[in-house]
What we know:
Helix content is about 40%, strand content about 15%. The protein is an alpha/beta fold. The chain has two domains: about 1-155, Alpha/beta knot; about 170-240, Trp Operon Repressor, Chain A (Orthogonal Bundle), CATH 1.10.1270. Strands 2-1-6-5-7 form a five-stranded parallel sheet, sandwiched between helices.
Amino acid sequence: xxxxxxxxxxxxxxxxxxxSIIGRARDKGIFTAECHNIRDYAFNKHRRVxxxxxxxxxxxxxxxxxxxxxxxxxxxxxxxQPHVIYMSPQGATxxxxxxxxxxxxxxxxxxxxxxxxxxNRIIEKIVDEEISIxxxxxxxxxxxxxxxxxxxxxxxxxVLKEEDGYxxxxxxxxxxxxxxxxxxxxxxxxxxxxLLLSGHxxxxxxxxxxxxxxxxxxxxxxxxxxxxxxxEDLAIIHKVDEG
Length: 243
């Protein structure tokens, strides 16, 4: 997979993309990530990429032309048009399902807005979809873009040591993750559930499924509305209500 990111702050993006699990996967060539400074495609000597909007609203708006030139350069380099995502609070909320879908694509082009956003004509011209990481507004699209890259890249083969590294996690199968514990066995008078020390894998797997249901019901009950629950699953949830 190749990911191109159009931003005003490539150095900010590079520091994260070069670190930890994502950085190691990038170094191994599991995926390619390139950051492009939109200012490099400005058509004036001051490398200005913003201007006042045609309205009474205060603030500055990113111009369409520098973004378009950046996108064109990436298309010419790849000899294809990547799937274009604009990080925007108006977009559809990012989900694990969407991350899996995007991880199967060959090429992504992520546009990071700034100031008051971008000229809407660039959205109409090149953007395939808008994605939001939540119902709030940030000063720029860089942090949302990094969230997207991280959540998509970790789905690629070889990024995590084992597939179970993400298949057991929250949201992957529509439920939240079960509680986890590590040493010491007893901490501050609180003990690890004895079943997890038994070595009985079938019982442990059953416990994990029950805990996924219970945790989801307690923390995010609306998620269960999207699932087809068995009678056994409903019985587990009913026990929670009974205390």
